[in-house]
Amino acid sequence: MKAPWLIPLIFTAVQASAAGDGEKMYNDLREKDAIYPDENWQSYVTEVGERLLTASPDAGANYNFVVVDNPGVNASATRDGYIFINRGIIAYCRSEDELAGIIGHEIGHVVGRHVQRAKGLNRLGGLLGWLGVIGTASYGIKDMGDTLTATAVSREAREYELQADAYGADFLARAGYDPLAMINVIYVLKEHELFSKSVANRPSVYHGLFGTHPRNDRRLHDAVQNAVPLAQRATTRPPQRDFWEMLGGLVFGDEAATGLIKGSTYYHSGLRIVVRFPDGWDLNNTPTEVFGRDISGQADASITVQRQQPAGRRQTPEDYLRDTLKRDDIESGEAIEVNGYEAFVADVEILTGDAQARKIAVVFKDGAVYLFKGELGATGDPAQFEQQFRATLASFRPMTAADLEDANRQRIEVVTANPGDSYAALARKSSIKSFPEETLRVINGHYPRGEPRAGDYIKIVR
Asked: CB of 447 within 8 A of CB of 195?
């Protein structure tokens, strides 16, 4: 299953409507619990960012470097100096120099005033990048993604990306990093794009929108090579930390991106929701709904939750049921709040069948509509079913950082490759569900046919 809100926009400069929008975006991310909850990574990325900043024309300026709890291969910058780095892109780096290359590129967008100068591309592309992060309605994200794809071939965008690469390479060299790491990380991310398109069948927009491979892109090499003589004259400085040691334990992927069931709880990180069903019920989910059923044998009861399209005009939850869904069978309804969200719950008139009770409810959350339906068949206690339906409805809430940590158990583990190790063998022990062998190759920079070399550090996922 594909998650349309996780479109991998690599290296995006975000067009802001006014200075300070980076701060607003940061606050939005905090409210959504979408800041990666690992202070070591937050401080590490800040250390690398500040080191690069001192080597830039913006030395002394107030920048903020933030790791976002999102698996998308994405990084972005705002005009007011906020640099957002998804944890997803960090997983593809193989050194602090490569991480610095990503951060330096984003600083380059700010220094080059690309955000202010850009027209359609960055205004749409950057907005998509951060809206996708905070889990807004996926249908809106898809529409904007289509617009981005249509505009992403502009010559202006290519020029800005090359300039940001040139700036970034210069900052790397002056800060004591290897400027060629810029090309190295772009190469790995290009391999990720090829994997996304040819294997996983996912859309991808490659950094800089280059049609050629980074190893063969002359203009890219020229942009970066200008910084090499500077690096040869500069003093090489040790890394801020042991990058491979930091990688161990980094959350990988997003098991809950399209819905994850753990026990009686349903998590959906793309929509940022959590719902808890009655204990002991059997749960199943599709991309559009989650379905719970009592399997105790004592009651013929079921509850489903479906995500619906909004009406397109201002309505109350009751209006939505009556006017948009055209339900003329609801009775005994009441307007309520569910964890701060507008809601309406009602009985459904039983016109056919042997059901003892039917329930329906609507909850409005962040521009989306969630429809709850419940039915008690010929067996079971109606009073108990009423309590179970109400409790399930009341459990509907926004996902927190703690929920994400509980739902997403996959972590990167760093090991030393042994003689004879292969990605096929390592994949059989991995927790990655889709394309594990290819994914391990990509994150280790060995896609499409490379194998581990004995003695090298490699990343596995457990």
From this structure: yes
Interatomic CA distance for residues 373 and 282, integer angstroms: 16
DSSP E strands, 179-300: 260-262, 265-268, 273-276, 282-285, 289-293
Tokens of 447: 């896609």
Checking phi first, is residue 349 left (phi over 0); if not, alpha (psi -120 to 50) or beta? beta
CB 370 within 8 A of CB 396: yes
pTM: 0.76
Sorted by sequence, the CB contacts under 8 Å of residue 380 that are 6+ apart come out as 294, 298, 299, 300, 301, 356
Q: What is the pLDDT of residues 119-170, one digit of tens each?
A: 544 444 444 444 444 433 332 233 333 333 334 445 677 788 888 899 999 9
Beta bridge partners, 346, equal 360
Q: Residue 125: which of 86, 88, 166, 76 has the closest Cα? A: 76
Count other Cβ atoms within 10 Å, centred on residue 303. Answer: 27
Domains of the chain: 12-247 (no CATH), 260-405 (3.40.1000.10), 411-461 (3.10.350.10)
